[in-house]
Write a structure and sequence with these properties.
The structure is a single chain. By secondary structure, the protein is mainly beta. The chain has a single domain, classed as Hotdog Thioesterase (Thiol Ester Dehydrase, Chain A). Helices cover 12% and strands 39% of the residues. A six-stranded antiparallel sheet has the order 1-2-4-5-6-3, with helices on one face. A hairpin with a 2-residue loop joins strand 5 and strand 6. The chain is globular, with a radius of gyration of 14 Å. The chain starts with 15 loop residues before the first strand and ends with a strand.
């Protein structure tokens, strides 16, 4: 599975695919308190770095379309912080050749990520 994050910085969180159809994939992820993503990121006030939110959306796409190759991060909007104990619900929908990921936490929308793929992205 390809990753956006170098192995030495990789998260240990597991993506749990809860639903998956051709046009929509839904997954959940909850990084553990000891997950390396929190090391050094706002010490004393751990927040999930935005690049990991993008990584989780990408992994969700790959869980439903293993042959897809990421070609472009089209856009990304972070709407609120993701705290240490938050569970992320990731919903990815097909929009032509794009995959639109919506990430929510208990407090509501956390991010919107749009990715473009080839080799399985259609």
């Amino acid at each position: 599975m390809s990753s956006l994050i170098p192995p030495e910085c990789a998260t240990t969180a597991r993506i749990d695919l809860t639903e998956g159809t051709g046009d929509e994939i839904v997954a959940r992820v909850r990084p553990g308190r000891n997950d390396p993503v929190f090391a050094g990121h706002y010490p004393g006030f751990p927040l999930l770095p935005g690049v990991y939110i993008v990584e989780y959306v990408h992994r969700t796409v790959l869980a439903g379309m293993p042959a897809a190759v990421l070609t472009e991060l089209v856009s990304c909007r972070f709407l609120q912080t993701v705290d240490l104990d938050d569970e992320l619900v990731i919903t990815v929908r097909r929009d032509g050749g794009l995959r639109r990921g919506t990430v929510t936490v208990a407090g509501g929308p956390a991010a919107e990520v749009v990715l473009r793929y080839q080799n399985g992205g259609e």
